[in-house]
Specification:
Alpha-Beta Plaits; rod-shaped; 305 residues; 3 domains; 5-stranded antiparallel sheet; alpha+beta; 11 helices
């Protein structure tokens, strides 16, 4: 039994990997490893610099859209998500000459249509909302020509948003209606007052009454007239209060507020990742080259024998 164990022991050790032998192989071919790592690093550095140079840059502006209908009808709801869905808005933005020229240069003539124009603008303009406060909007555009033309894109986009804001027009329209109604009510109240004066002249029973009793007398003897009087006075007060409220909305008509200036944002690239992967690949390939050369050298030695 002991003899079998002694016979098996050498075979068992022959199958094990000798760590020191592996290290010797790597040291023996260290220059091959170094050269491979350097070559891979140079290649990955070139690729990283190229990717970095192609990384897009952006301009961003933040705005605040605080919109309320204030109980008024026909007030447009400003929706930033539908701006580029409207053909007229796409055409307005593409009136910026450098942006239009970039589109024409990028898109083949046979593919130039409204759909491709819309897709072109959707690719360079990003509108995002703050998750915590949906009223906070960020407008970001890629700099595809120069900063000036990209600034024009953002400003044109905000101008289009402002064109959707018709609150001031609706307020003026409502003020006109209320003012006209108020004037009609004033005329009606004046007519009622004239009728009451005529009653004072003709009704002899009023002369013996005290001033505070006279109106009660008219209210009881002429109920329809009194009802008309109260109704018109109620309308009068309503129209006056409504006009005061509409005037107070003048300070709130600036629905779109610009919360930041247009600022520059450097686009992120995968340059660092590419460089890191290149170095790791260089180490891996260097080790593989070292073992491959060791295998070839061993094969040549056995072949010569």
């Amino acid at each position: 039994m002991s003899k079998e164990l002694k016979v098996m022991e050498p075979k068992q050790y022959d199958d094990e990997i000798d760590l020191y032998e592996l290290i010797e192989i790597l040291v023996r071919h260290k220059w091959s490893i170094v050269i491979t790592i350097v070559l891979c690093t140079i290649l990955s550095l070139g690729a990283a610099l190229y990717v970095r140079s192609k990384a897009p840059n952006y301009l961003i502006k933040s705005i605040l859209i605080q919109q309320d209908t204030y109980g008024l009808k026909e007030v447009n709801r400003i929706n930033v998500d539908t701006i580029l869905l409207q053909d007229k808005n796409v055409e307005k933005i593409l009136e910026i000459e450098p942006i239009k020229a970039k589109y024409l240069g990028k898109m083949p003539k046979e593919m130039q249509n409204m759909a491709s124009e819309r897709k072109f603008l959707q690719d360079i303009i990003t509108v995002s909302k703050n998750e915590k406060n949906p009223e906070e909007i960020s407008i970001k555009t890629e700099i595809i020509v120069d900063e000036n033309s990209s600034r024009d894109v953002i400003n044109r986009y905000i101008d289009i948003l402002r064109e959707q804001d018709n609150l001031s027009d609706v307020i003026e329209k409502e003020k006109k209606l209320k003012s006209d109604s108020l004037e009609k009510t004033k005329v009606e109240i004046e007519n009622i007052q004239n009728e009451i004066l005529e009653i004072f002249k003709k009704d002899s029973d009023l002369r013996a009454l005290k001033p505070e009793e006279k109106m009660n007398y008219i209210a009881s003897k002429y109920p329809e007239l009194n009802l008309r009087k109260n109704e018109q006075e109620k309308y009068y007060n309503t129209y006056v209060n409504e006009l005061v409220r509409l005037d107070s909305l003048n300070d709130k008509m600036d629905i779109i507020k610009e919360t930041t200036d247009i600022y520059f944002l450097k686009g992120q690239s995968k340059a660092k990742l590419i460089l890191a992967v290149g170095i790791v690949m260089g180490v891996f390939l260097g080790v593989m080259v070292a073992f491959l050369k060791e295998f070839i050298d061993g094969y040549k030695k056995r072949y010569k024998k």
